[in-house]
Amino acid sequence: MSMPSSAYPVNNAGVVAKPGTPQDTEENLDFIFNINLKSVIRLNKLAIPHLEKTRGNIVNVSSIAAIKPLAGVTAYSMSKISLDHYMKIEAPALAKKGIRMNNLNPGYVSTNIVSRIGGPQDFFEKRAQALVTHQIPLGRVGTCLDMAKAVSYLASDDASYVMGTTLVVDGGFVLGGPEIPGLENENEEKL
After folding, report:
1. Dihedrals φ, ψ of 32, to 5°?
2. Which residues 6+ apart lie within 8 Å of 164 measured at CB?
3. Which end of the chain is more exposed for a tag (fewer CB within 10 A), N or C?
C-alpha cells in the first residue's frame, strides 16, 4: 500500500452518551452531537485550506450505528447518520478542490468505549461473546489494528479513486443475523 504524500486528518471522536445523563434528554443529545458531528465539521473547516494546497484527504470515523439500528443508543446513531450524510454532501464539493473525503464505519471493536459508559464489564464481555457467536459472520470482534489499516487504506494513494464512500469494517455484522439469545432487554438499564 502506498501511503499518502501529505498529512491528513482522521476525525475519530465519538461518545455514546454523557455520563450520568439519561439517553432521552436534550442535554445528552447536545453533548453527543457537539462531539460526534460538530467537532468534525469544525476541524475539517480548519484543515481544508491546507488540504487544498496538498491535495490531501479527510477520513471521518462514523459507525455501523449509522447503517443498522441499534437499540439503546438513539442519539449516538443519529449523530453518526448525520456524519455520513455530511460527508456525502461535502465530498463532491471538496473533490473539485482536489480533496477526497471518506468515512470509516467500524463495527464492534475491542476498545474501552463501552466500559466508559458505566456498565459492568461482565455484561459487555457476555454481549461481545454473544455477538461473535450469533451476529458477526467472521467470528470475532474487530481490533484497533483492523480499523487503523482501513483508515490507512482510505488515506493512501491506493484509494485515489475512492471518494464520498462509507467503508464498513464490521466482520459482516450489518448483513444481519439472529437476535442475541437472552440479551434483547437484559441489563438495558445498565447502558
Report:
1. -65, -45
2. 87, 88, 91, 92, 95, 101, 102
3. N
| Contact present, 102 and 164 (Cβ < 8 Å) | yes
> Where residue 190 falls among pLDDT bands split at 50, 70, 90?
very low
User: What residues form DSSP beta bridges with 155?
Assistant: none
Which residue's entry shows cell 491546507?
Answer: 50
Identify the DSSP state of 164.
Answer: S
Q: Cβ neighbours of residue 123 under 8 Å, at least 6 residues apart?
A: 187, 190
CB 1 within 8 A of CB 158: yes
Q: Say whether 153 is catalytic.
A: no
Looking at domain 10-190, does it have CATH number 3.20.20.150? no
Percent helix, strand and coil across the chain, each to the nearest 5:
50, 10, 40
Catalytic residue among 8, 76, 86, 108: 76
Do the Cβ atoms of 102 and 59 come closer than 8 Å?
yes
What DSSP assignment string belongs to 69-132?
A: --TT-HHHHHHHHHHHHHHHHHHHHHHTTT-EEEEEEE-SBSSSTTGGGT--HHHHHHHHHHHH
Is pLDDT above 80 for 107? yes
- The Cα-based distances of 179 to 67, 79, 183 in angstroms read 17, 24, 8
Q: What CA–CA distance (Å, rounded) separates 47 from 67? A: 27
